Amino acid sequence: METVLCICLGIGLSAACGFRVFVPLLALSVAAHSGHVHLAAGFQWIASDAALIAFGIATALEIGAYYIPWVDHALDVIATPVAVVAGVLVTASLVTDMSPLLKWTLAVIAGGGAAGLVQGGTILLRGASSVTTAGFGNPLVATAELAGAAVISVLSLLAPVFIAVVVLLGLAWIARKLWLRSQTRVTAPGHPTLS
């Protein structure tokens, strides 16, 4: 079960890399630094003080650069391969109990694929914004992308708790429906009851 949660966390953070490359890496670094997330062997450097500072600075620069006209377009060109690599890195860093072949195959296909698909969508959205608003709508797009990266990163890190709550609520709802259905059968006149 832990492996499945780690894979889900990796894919979620990888998708967030498609919005902003460094926001999910910073979130992962903070989570690993605080002990909330355990990294795979060889990726402990992500939890180091130096990585935390570097990801923080890179995040601030990336966020600011997307609000500068024309620079945002240049960043989109650069960000596509970088987002895919970041998605692969994030997923690989979280998958612990798996053979290296499966781990890296999963990281490339799921992590890199999720980041690439989201990044492709942001390129299309920014292009449409540039054409329809002459670039004046791009700061709104940048803000939405930043919000998407932040929200997805946080929800991904909280996913195990979130998933447990959703499952418990789902089971309670099913139990209630079954109980209400059994009560309806008992009280309905002329309706056969199960013994």
Question: What features would you describe in this structure?
Answer:
With 195 residues, the chain is mainly α. The protein folds into two domains: 2-157, no CATH class; 160-195. It is 78% helix and 0% strand. The chain is built from seven helices and no strands. It has helices at 2-17, 22-33, 49-65, 71-94, 100-133, 138-157, 159-187. Helix 2 (22-33) packs parallel to helix 6, helix 4 packs antiparallel against helix 5 and helix 5 (100-133) packs antiparallel against helix 6 (138-157). It is globular. The chain starts with a helix and ends in an 8-residue tail after the last helix. The mean pLDDT is 86.
Distance between the termini: 38 Å
Radius of gyration: 22 Å
Characterize the overall form: globular
Number of domains: 2
Helix and strand content put the structural class at mainly alpha
Residues in helices, as a percent range: over 70%
Strand content: under 5%
Low-confidence stretches: none
Main β-sheet: number of strands, strand sense, barrel status? none
Average pLDDT number: 86
β-strand number: 0
> What is the N-to-C succession of helices and strands?
HHHHHHH
- Count up the helices: 7
